[in-house]
Every structure is written in structure tokens, then in C-alpha cells.
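Handout, page 2. Input:
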Amino acid sequence: MATTAAPEPSRRNARANRERILTVARQELGKNPDATIEEIAQATGVVRRTVFGHFPGRLALLEAVAEEASQSVREAVERADTPSEPPERALARFVLAIWTVGDRYRMLIGLARRDLGAERVSEVLAPAREAVTAILERGQSYGAFHTNVPPPVLSSALEALCLALLESVNSGAWQDDGTATAIAALTAAGVPAGRAEAELRELSALLASRRTETAVGSSTTEAG
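Output:
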């Protein structure tokens, strides 16, 4: 006798529950890194059994959040992949793109090291590290960045800088939308401060213009 497939609404509800649990988990763990499954379930508005139905334990929940973050990093790297741009602009664009991901998952920085291990953190960040190293190699060959530090080493240093600034935002010691961090990354790579600030102003204006064009295009399509 053939097995009857689960009704589509049930599958949709299960996916929606899982996504909601992950969203609330990010929020609750951001406030309290030691939040329990029970507390996350209560904040989500479901019973503990529902959470365990998707994630057998706290570690499994953290791993799911880490995998979600890993996918977001890969997507951000793809969006920021602009090999035709000058390296200064490419690095600034990359930092702004990855900052959005980091801001969303910044609670993972400490949690992943503590609960998932340094190797898992490296896996999540690997695509970003490779992309930055490629930008730095190109920038050094063009004379845009200083050459006294090899690209892979400089990439690690910029990563540490960005993570430190992200943790400062997480602790409430500082506020940034990624702009100041992008300027800091450029100056650390050897771009003069004034030029770095001008680069960010131009890039921010360009991104704002494109967002406006996209919004207008969407409105026109809906109207049609």
C-alpha cells in the first residue's frame, strides 16, 4: 500500500515553525548566550516539544544557526564579487556586504567558539577569507594597498579587526552600520584616511541610488 504524503499545509507549517524558532533563537541568544531551549521555546510561543521536534538539543539548534550564517556569508560574498571594480571599492563593498551578515549573526562569534569550536567558525568564515585575500592580492599588485604584509596574513588581520568592532557593537560599546568599519579596513590595508572616507561616501551614494532604482522598478512592475 502506497504511503500517503503529508499534506502540503502541514509541511508549510513545519517550515514556518522552524524558521520562527531560528529567528527567535538568534534574538534570545544575542541577549543571553546561555538561553535554554525552554526559554527559546517560550519566547517563540511554542511548547518545548515543538523545538525538540526540529532540533534535538541546544547544540543542534546552534549548529542550525551556524549553517544559516554560513549560507548567508556565501551569498554575501557572491553579491560583493566585483572583480572589475578598483580594489579599494571592492574591499569597501565587501565589508559593507558582510557587515549585514555579521550584524545579524554577531552573537555567534562568541557562542560558536565556545560551543561549536574554532574549526566550525573557520568553516563559516572560509568564503569571506578567500574573497578578501583575492581582493588584497589584486590591490597589492595595483599598488592600492601596502605590500609589507602578505595578503593571507593581512586578510586574517582585517578579519580580526572587523570581528573586534562587531563585538563592540554587540556589547553596546559602539554603534556602526558598517561604514566606519569599512573605512577602518581600508586604512588598515594602506589606503589614506581621506581617500578611504571619500571612497565610502561615493559607494554609499551609489548603493542608495541603486536601491531607489530597484524600488521604482518594483513599483512600476506592480502598477503594470
